[in-house]
Design a protein that fits this description.
The structure holds two protein chains of two kinds.
Chain A (H helix, E strand, L loop, with lengths): L2 E5 L2 E5 L4 E8 L3 E9 L6 E6 L5 E4 L2 E5 L3 E6 L8 E9 L9 E2 L3 E6 L1
Parallel strand pairs in A: 2-11
Antiparallel strand pairs in A: 1-3, 3-8, 4-5, 4-9, 6-7, 7-8, 9-10, 9-11
Chain B lengths: L3 E3 L3 E4 L5 E7 L5 E8 L3 E10 L2 E4 L6 E7 L2 E6 L8 E8 L8 E2 L3 E5 L1
Parallel strand pairs in B: 2-11
Antiparallel strand pairs in B: 1-3, 3-8, 4-5, 4-9, 5-6, 7-8, 9-10, 9-11
Classes of the chains: A mainly beta, B mainly beta.
């Protein structure tokens, strides 16, 4: 069964303390892996797409990497405004022509000043 | 920028009422989705549509129906609202072709009393 697992469920960091969030996936084949940021009471905001192992994407303090079994979202020198829930989703190859994604439950990140 | 809008941010309804949630996207996207999001359960797909008048059930379609009469508009209908349908409802859209990134609206927080 296709599955996406995110860890940890929650993470509390001090401002400037770098860390990584993990998204491990079990799918028959990967068309794409997506990272989103979600602020409380709002819809998820797209951050990155990764398509193949070894690929990396960066945006400000965030860097996403991909292997054959997992993806990491590295946060370098975080600031309080990086506090949010980070969601991971995968688009499996066996999804056919539809665009159904499989979602993880997210990691809730809190960055203290 | 992709814009997905939802008709209401907050909604309070009574048990048994018929509820309409509307979603509009302005980017001529082929595919549209309705999710609900609950603490500890993550994003769960209710219905999706890959073309006008075309729809497919997601993972939790019971108690819901949808309508897509125009390409830009996707409506979610709760035929007879129940308290267990209290949730955050999120609409998303994605273009056709290879791009399967989903772009989300701001969400509707529905309370059924």
């Amino acid at each position: 069964e296709d599955q996406v697992t995110q860890s940890p469920e929650a993470l509390r960091l001090q401002e400037g303390e770098s860390s990584s969030l993990n998204c491990s996936y079990t799918v028959s084949g990967l068309r794409g892996l997506f990272w989103y940021r979600q602020d409380p009471g709002k819809g998820p905001e797209f951050l990155f797409t990764l398509y193949s192992a070894g690929e990396e994407k960066e945006k400000e303090r965030l860097k996403a990497t991909l292997t054959k079994k997992e993806s990491f979202l590295h946060i370098t020198a975080p600031k309080p405004e990086d506090s949010a829930t980070y969601l991971c989703a995968v688009h499996p190859s066996n999804a056919g022509n539809n665009r159904k994604l499989i979602w993880g439950l997210g990691t809730s990140l809190a960055v203290n000043p | 920028d992709v814009k997905v809008t939802q008709s209401s941010r907050y909604l309070v309804k009574r048990t048994g009422e018929k509820v309409f949630l509307e979603c509009v996207q302005d980017m001529d996207h082929e595919n549209m989705f309705w999710y609900r999001q609950d603490p500890g359960l993550g994003l769960r797909l209710i219905y999706f549509s890959y073309d006008v008048k075309m729809k497919e059930k997601g993972d939790i379609p019971e108690g819901y129906s949808v309508s897509r009469e125009k390409k830009e508009r996707f409506s979610l209908i709760l035929e007879s609202a129940s308290t267990n349908q209290t949730s955050m409802y999120l609409c998303a859209s994605t273009p056709g072709g290879q791009d399967s990134v989903q772009y989300f609206g701001p969400g509707t927080r529905l309370l059924v009393l």
